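Project standup — Tuesday

K.O.: blocked on the structure for the chain from last sprint. Re-posting the sequence here as requested.
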Amino acid sequence: MNFPFVMPSAARQLLQLKRFLTAFGMTAFFFTQAHAQLGAAKNQFTHADTLRGSLNENRDWWDVLRYDITVKPDIENKTIEGKCIITCETIKKGKTLQIDLQSPLIIDSVINTGTLFSNRGTSIKVHEVYSFKQIETENITLIELNETKSKGEKFSFHIYYHGKPKEAIRPPWDGGWIWKKDEKGRPFVSVAVQGLGASAWYPCKDHQSDEPDLGAFLTVIVPDSLVAVGNGRLQSKTEIPEYKLTSYRWQIKNPINNYLIIPYIGKYVNFTDTLMGEKGKLDLSYWVLDYNLDKAKEQFKQAKLMLHAFEYWFGPYPFYEDSYKLVEAPHLGMEHQSATAYGNKFANGYLGRDLSGTGWGLKWDFIIVHESGHEWFANNITSKDLADMWIHEGFTNYSETLFTEYYYGKEAGTDYNVGTRRAIRNDIPIIGPYGVNKEGSGDMYYKSGNMLHSIRHAMNDDEKFRQILRGLNKTFYHQTVTTQQIEQYINKNAGYNFSKVFDQYLRTTQIPTLEFYKDSIASTVSFHYTTCVDGFNLPIVINASNKKILPATQWQTLSLSKEEFDWFNQKNIVRNYYIKTNQLAGKP
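H.V.: unblocked you, prediction finished:
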């Protein structure tokens, strides 16, 4: 069924609203190589990139409180039509809003549905039609309110839209709607828009810094032979027999980033479980295609193992109110909050492979571990700017090491971490350019994870490191952050200034080299750092005695015990620190 969303007059816009409500009964790596290839491209930014990536005068005066999204896909024609109610609060006075919606999607109308109280105490619905200008070349729409809003006001408006959204060809590496078929030829549909942005499928303030404080609703209207799954918890299932449709309404109670709100459509079946976690009972819900039920019941047992390990390392799962879900997806995987996308074919490893080459990565399901790790780093703690995505990917990459360590021991975790270095490219800096919606290098995964491994060993206090990870999730609970905030928190709580270490690994492509000379007669070692930023100061701990040394760019010489002298070699150093070594044959 197609709705006449394009309305030439206010009267027809109001009729559209009435029809919509009446008809549907509604009253209200990972992926390192791909990222590296993108990052290596020349930075040629457009005005549209700036409009999307920065907070300008039409974005900075209002804060999103809630999204209420309704979408009805036409699976055969690969089109959608929908409505998005955006509830806001003003930070300062303003009148013009920038709403993001990517071409070729079209906004049909913008309506404010308010309530006017008469003198007799009866309430009357009042509808205001807002003027708007959709600038398709910039992927934005400017909405003009009928009056200037003052600081502290709350208001909402309805946006009706339709069109043929961008289709993802290689999801999740590229973004868009995913129109696939399952093994039985039935529709298997979803969305993946990290990087591309949520505005590829619904109108929103598409900037990572502004999450809806009060969460979101997602209503998906599908043929009655299919099931629609969303984030959070299912609030209602409404059959619409005259159109052979079913409406599924999901609620997310916690703040959620735009790109994490996702519909899944397919021939799903559901099974549930519970976990007694740090905050009490956590509901677990699993949605898979009907013919994969038995395989899922076995493979998804790993979800509990993951949750126990990550609650130990990172603190309580951040979204108890919304439950934890794994949802089978028509792509490999993505960290969709409280509805993790799963497409790893119910096998261990990464599509059956061990990305570390050590064997440890075949002990567990990569997608369950990695994508769920994002619930803490990406979903709980979110970077304000896409340039700081290492906060998402670096910590989550290291979560793979920590999971391995939790169940198989510290040496196994270190084996895994060191093994992943073969994927590091050192092509461009990890932190990308700010304000233009641009990621940095794909090294945000493995190189950032190895940076954290190096900092941890430099601290030489595993419990303090664990408390830093837990403290980050508590201090920045449900917040968006900058790299500077993360650096400052780690420096303060580690009791050491790692600023130059962050500079080295996040902002340059150089790998520092520890150059050293061992004098076996004097039992001394001379050492210094080269190919590094000025002031690089990563401590090295000699595990034989827990002695901490502080190499600098200037040469130093230390006397060592026999055990310390024997330990000081390339193999032991590079196992704990992502640096190069160069042992000199003669005195420097």
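K.O.: great, moving the ticket to review. The longest helix spans residues 390-408. The two ends are 79 Å apart (CA to CA).
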